[in-house]
Design goal:
Helix 4 packs parallel to helix 5, helix 8 packs across helix 12 and helix 12 runs antiparallel to helix 13. The protein contains 14 helices and nine strands. It is of the alpha/beta class. The protein folds into two domains: 161 residues, NAD(P)-binding Rossmann-like Domain (Rossmann fold, 3-Layer(aba) Sandwich), CATH 3.40.50; 120 residues, Orthogonal Bundle (N-(1-d-carboxylethyl)-l-norvaline Dehydrogenase, domain 2), CATH 1.10.1040.10. Strands 1, 2, 3, 4, 5, 6, 7, 8 and 9 form a nine-stranded mixed β-sheet that branches. The protein starts with 6 loop residues before the first strand and ends with a helix. Strand 8, helix 7 and strand 9 form a beta-alpha-beta unit. It binds NADP nicotinamide-adenine-dinucleotide phosphate. NADP nicotinamide-adenine-dinucleotide phosphate binds next to helix 4, strand 7 and helix 6. The site of NADP nicotinamide-adenine-dinucleotide phosphate (NAP) has 26 residues, from helix 4, strand 7 and helix 6.
Length: 300
């Protein structure tokens, strides 16, 4: 019979969580899963994962629990709500938040869990939906190194590069820096695409050049083709990038660094959310440029 320390809890089966959990199953882990919208758990249940009705049941059955939720407030809700994780956890367990949140949020979660004797790791990821599916994520981990070592095998079964970043919040610090690069690259790709289209350059030639020279990147490879096809399905949602950029701008303010690029893309993604594209993929940035171009025409 399996003990609770053998089983892994998994909470949050969205675009990222579902394939990450699937890779744990494929690598031989026994999973206890919970998702607010239960239907999303069906494919993993068919592969042997145990579906439960609350985070409390996850905590009761597992020594290590992973969450891949939207934001720190959602993690806190899953911990503290009625039948939440805290109502079922035991001293000595570890809770790992793999969503993207703020370093400050990570420290708050750590203190909430520490009151119950549960260890906490912030372990955000990069590599997108494809990386989650292929098990090629890069995972950056903050928290106690002893807790990191206990969870390391799980990270290695979801990613190809696992970096121990330092104390609690350090994973989120690295992730926010990553998001600044990701967002500014999207801005650059969108502007290059808009200029090329208006100037009559073919999509094929633009892609051929950008993907084979100094401009090549994850965004060029994976999202520029979607911009070209006007395919707005997420991958990575606009609302989530807006959240990340907002955290990055707060962090920059805290450490006294001017962030001219980050504030620009934050404003653009805020506008995009207000235009109703929050649940679309980040490549929808093009829609802001479309709107501005249309306005230029009508206002002469
Ligand atoms: P998603 O598809 O929107 O999934 C979000 C998940 O969180 C869903 O399972 C949702 O449950 C659950 N959830 C949200 N709020 C909740 C709450 N209050 N209580 C219970 N469950 C809640 O998002 P995602 O793309 O997987 O992203 C998850 C995290 O990873 C985010 O922090 C994001 O920034 C980060 N991330 C995403 C990517 C990417 O490319 N997508 C890459 C790196 C990092 P329901 O199913 O019931 O809605």
């Amino acid at each position: 019979m399996q003990s609770s320390s053998d089983r892994v809890g998994f909470i949050g089966l969205g675009i990222m969580g579902l394939p990450m959990a699937l890779n744990l199953i494929k690598n031989g882990h026994s999973l206890v899963i919970y998702n607010r919208t239960r239907s999303k758990a069906a494919s993993l249940q068919a592969l042997g994962a145990k579906v439960v009705e609350s985070p409390r049941e996850v905590a009761k059955e597992c020594g290590i629990t992973i969450s891949v939720l939207t934001d720190a407030v959602d993690v806190e809700q899953v911990l503290t709500e009625k039948d939440g994780y805290l109502s079922g956890c035991k001293e000595g367990e570890i809770f790992v938040d793999m969503g993207t949140n703020s370093p400050r949020g990570a420290k708050r979660l750590e203190s909430i869990l520490a009151a119950k004797g549960v260890g906490f790791l912030d372990a955000p990821v990069t590599g997108g939906q494809r990386g989650a599916q292929d098990g090629t994520l890069t995972i950056m981990v903050g928290g106690k190194e002893t807790d990191f070592e206990r969870a390391r095998a799980l990270f290695e079964h979801m990613g190809k590069k696992v970096v121990y970043a330092g104390p609690t919040g350090s994973g989120q610090l690295l992730k926010l820096c990553n998001q600044v690069v990701v967002a500014l690259d999207m801005l650059a790709c969108t502007e290059a695409f808009m200029i090329a289209r208006k100037a009559g350059v073919s999509d094929t030639k633009l892609f051929e050049v950008l993907s084979n020279g100094a401009a090549n990147s994850f965004t060029v490879q994976n999202l520029l083709p979607k911009i070209m096809k006007n395919d707005l399905e997420p991958g990575f949602k606009v609302a989530h990038l807006k959240k990340d950029l907002s955290y990055a701008a707060d962090l920059a303010k805290e450490v006294g660094v001017p962030v001219l690029g980050t504030s620009t893309v934050l404003q653009l993604y805020t506008a995009l959310t207000e235009m109703g594209y929050g649940e679309k993929g980040t490549q929808a940035l093009k829609k802001v440029y479309d709107a501005l171009s249309t306005r230029d025409k009508t206002t002469g």
